[in-house]
Amino acid sequence: MRVFKFDDEVAVPITQFGSRFRIAPLTAPGADARVQVMYLPAGGLIGQHPAVGKQLLAVVTGSGWVSGGDGARRALGPGYAALWDDGEEHAAGSEDGLTALSVEGQFEMWAIAVTTEITVSDYDPAWADWFAQLKAHIWPAVADVALRIDHVGSTSVPGLAAKPIIDLDIVVGSQDEVRPVIKGLAGLGYRWRGDLGISGREAFAVPPDTDLPKHNLYVVVENNKAHLDHWLLRDLLRADPAARERYATLKRHNVTLADGDMEVYVAAKAALVADLLSRARAEMGLPAAEYWQP
């Protein structure tokens, strides 16, 4: 069983035709699937059985639980969905009742994966080469608008253990340049995903079936808060071996703690990240900022 997120935090804003709303797609266009609305009353149960084809249960209101082949139950609320593969044993239920969308058939997920395999590796010098490869691929599509592409995230810090996934910031000079960059990236197959709940950055889904190194791609306005947070943390960790080791130790611990749940992994390091960023801002003479605490 895999869990996905599709609430308003991960939705894309729509402004065409004077519109003011957000869309959080569940599945990609061209799906050959049946969509139904399911209503579970208080005490309702979907008994354990093998999935007949690929099946998705996306909670709209209420709350409940879902389980997969291992039988372990996981709580599921509005904006979250469970995905079962063909033949996978599964069940679901609700103490207080819920309403959900059910999708069955052949489809590609566009919602944001919450459960995934999480690996933290020792620093690899090849990560710098991966960044250079990605930059060479992306830059021609945005060179007429962007200022530069920065290597950020843990893979940009020599000596720091990290998930082997490259983080890149496409840096622009003003908000007016963001939309042209989104358009340029679409030509390379990148799909805009909105800010994923972090104001000041725009995130993108990597084209499927690419041979490029795994990466996370963002667009930021130079030195807005999102951009500052990226390079302040990077530069502090580059300069402070003790902070690097403290961060690496926590991340390795969080891999076990999270057990494949990326939201748990991120939440478990939020306090340390906030502490390091607050220190970095103070050392740079920047005003204090508030940081997320789960």
What are the segments in which pLDDT stays under 50 over at least 5 consecutive residues? none
Shape: globular
Strand content: 25-35%
Specify the oligomeric state: single chain
DSSP, total strands: 17
For the largest beta sheet, what order do the strands appear in spatially? 4-11-6-9-1-12
Mean pLDDT: 94
The H/E string reads EEEEEEEEEEEEHEEHEEEHHH
| N- to C-terminal distance | 25 Å
Biggest sheet character? 6 strands, antiparallel
Radius of gyration: 21 Å
Question: What percent of residues adopt helix (DSSP H or I)?
Answer: 25-40%
Helix/strand/pairing category: alpha+beta
- Provide a count of the helices: 5
Commentary on this structure:
The chain is an alpha+beta fold. The chain contains five helices and 17 strands. It has helices spanning 126-142, 178-186, 225-239, 241-258, 262-283; strands at residues 2-5, 12-14, 21-23, 32-40, 44-50, 54-62, 64-67, 73-76, 80-84, 89-94, 98-106, 112-113, 148-152, 166-172, 191-192, 201-205, 215-221. The strands form four sheets. A six-stranded antiparallel β-sheet has the order 4-11-6-9-1-12, with no helix packed on it. Strands 13-14-17-16-15 form a five-stranded mixed β-sheet, sandwiched between helices. A four-stranded antiparallel β-sheet has the order 5-10-7-8, with no helix packed on it. Helix 3 packs across helix 5 and helix 4 (241-258) packs antiparallel against helix 5. The longest helix is centred in the last third of the chain and has 22 residues, at 262-283. The two termini are 25 Å apart. The model has no long low-confidence stretch (mean pLDDT 94).
